[in-house]
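Lab channel / #folding
Pinned by the channel admin:
"Please post every new chain as: sequence first, then the structure tokens as a reply. Keep commentary short and put observations after the output so the thread stays searchable."

First post following the new format, from NK:
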Amino acid sequence: MALQGPIPISFDQVFPYGAFAVGEVTQVDDFDRSTKDNRVQQIDKNTNLRMWQVRVMDPDPDARKGQGEVTVKLLAEVCPSLPDEIPGMPFRPVEFTGMTVTPYIDERGARGRLAFSFKATGVQAPSKGARTDAKAGAADAKSGDSKAA
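Reply from TO:
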């Protein structure tokens, strides 16, 4: 099979209405190797880079309950920096680069459900104009307009 491991995906496909970082970037702990007194950082098995994470709000008005916030894992040797805060805004607008998605079955609860793990190799301030085109594409896709490709 041609698809093995993380699947490359664009930021606009995941967050057509943009994304907002909540809080700061933190390290992902390797719970199998960590102890109470010694936290060990998780290493990505595909890239051998350290794993960091940031909570992200998705402002998509059609997101189902519980899907408005996701965690994006960042792969980097040193802790990535978030873009500067914007005065008067409670969250920082962000854009991720080098994104991948890995589908998996979340077996918590009575029944398993399909879930997704998002990773990125970079985070930056949103590029100018990207959200306008993404919103138009998302609206066209929902209406079934075939021009939105």
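NK: The longest strand covers residues 19-27.
TO: also worth noting, The beta strands are 7-8, 19-27, 51-57, 69-75, 92-97, 100-106, 113-120, 122-124.
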